[in-house]
Amino acid sequence: VDEEQFKKILGYISSGKREGAKLMCGGGVAADRGYFIQPTIFGDVQDGMTIAREEIFGPVMQILKFKTLEEVVERANDTKYGLAAAVFTKDIDKAHYISSGLRAGTVWINCYDVFGAQAPFGGYKYSGNGRELGEYGLDNYTEVKTVTIKVPQKNS
């Protein structure tokens, strides 16, 4: 994290407090030097809050309550971003249901930030187009050409 991102993350934390989210832990600078921020958790987050709508790219977790799985998928997709998502559950059927409905380039189930060179990585919507890694990642380095040749017939 550089100074610019450090300031952005602290701005998001301030925004969460200002907009009424409940700061459950963290929320401050973690060291006297460098750009370290305490792991931060907000509860009572509402859909319209900045911290619920933006990609923070920092150690900030937002907790939102829900009633149905359909609501979870709808709310998760109600954003202009779609880089990655994580689903934590003991119920594999729920994990499959939610992951199939999410508009995100990567969905982790019961883990987070796990990558394999064989698996493509990239986002949906404003989170990017194209893919890195895996077979799809080679598309950026490939030029395809079609050559068609008419072969003369023997008795024509």
TrEMBL record:
Belongs to the aldehyde dehydrogenase family. It holds the Pfam family Aldedh. InterPro entries: Ald_DH/histidinol_DH, Ald_DH_C, Ald_DH_N, Aldehyde_DH_dom. Keywords: NAD, Oxidoreductase. Residues 1-147 form the Aldehyde dehydrogenase domain. This is Aldehyde dehydrogenase domain-containing protein. One of its GO terms (molecular function) is oxidoreductase activity, acting on the aldehyde or oxo group of donors, NAD or NADP as acceptor. The keyword Oxidoreductase applies.
